[in-house]
Specification:
This protein is an all-alpha fold. About 70% of the residues lie in helices and about 0% in strands. The chain has 3 domains: about 60 residues; about 100 residues, Orthogonal Bundle (DNAb Helicase, Chain A); about 55 residues.
Length: about 240
């Protein structure tokens, strides 16, 4: 069996990393965690470090093999920066936004899956949480939300660093919807590559149910069509 077949994918590792981080955050929020829980946290933090190293190695492997999926990090930054630039007008007593901001113009078009960089995904999730709670989106509010999510990282170019960089990098939000459409096209390509790879593997495997494989193919098309519908209203 080849190395390519046995090594875990970035998606699996990322899901494992999120699961472990969520466990750590849940215990750390307790007022008086037990000694056993504290020991568990230390063990999980060590495992988190190892998983992060594996993710880095996997990404580096793909770079060396020329397997980087279609991605436009500059557009991801442009969209997030534009959302930070114009968050909407605050007019009510509780500081809730009432005017239309940049995020509201693209919120229906994009999801976390449209962003490739994990830091960008976290920032988009923080913005989505603020938007759902009718709170203004700014560098300060996004950083506070990242802290609440347990995703604050002051060093190593984490989400906090990215927020500060994005807030000063974009000067206009005029093209944000056009940029969102292009991001969707990149996300569609990545989704197709990932889905078709799994479908091909299953199709070659005689032990896999062919109708389940067909269902997966139809699900891929369903997801892609839903993304097309979202950008179609604004295209």
């Amino acid at each position: 069996m080849s190395f390519e077949k046995v090594k875990p994918s970035i998606k699996i590792l990322t899901e494992l990393l999120k699961e472990k981080k969520d466990r750590v955050v849940a215990i750390e929020k307790k007022e008086q965690p037990t000694q056993k829980e504290l020991q568990f946290i230390n063990q999980e933090k060590e495992l988190i470090k190892h998983v992060e190293v594996l993710i880095t190695m996997e990404k580096q492997f793909k770079v060396e093999m020329g397997l980087i999926p279609p991605v436009a990090l500059d557009l991801e930054e442009a969209v997030l920066g534009a959302c930070l630039l114009e968050s909407g007008t605050m007019t009510d007593r509780d500081g809730r936004i009432t005017g239309e901001g940049t995020f509201s113009r693209v919120a229906h078009m994009l999801t976390i899956d449209h962003f490739y960089d994990e830091r960008h995904q976290l920032i988009w999730q923080a913005m989505s949480n603020l938007f759902a709670g009718q709170k203004p989106i700014s560098m300060t509010s996004v950083n506070h939300e990242l802290r609440r999510m347990g995703q604050w990282k002051d060093a190593n170019y984490g989400p906090a660093y990215m927020v500060a960089m994005l807030s000063s990098k974009v000067s206009s939000s005029a093209n944000v919807q056009y940029d969102a459409i292009i991001l969707t096209e990149y996300a569609m390509r990545r989704h197709m590559i990932s889905s078709i790879s799994r479908i091909l593997t299953r199709a070659y495997d005689d032990t896999c149910d062919v109708f389940e494989t067909l269902d997966e193919a139809q699900e891929m098309v369903k997801v892609l069509n839903s993304w097309i519908d979202k950008i179609g209203a604004k295209a």
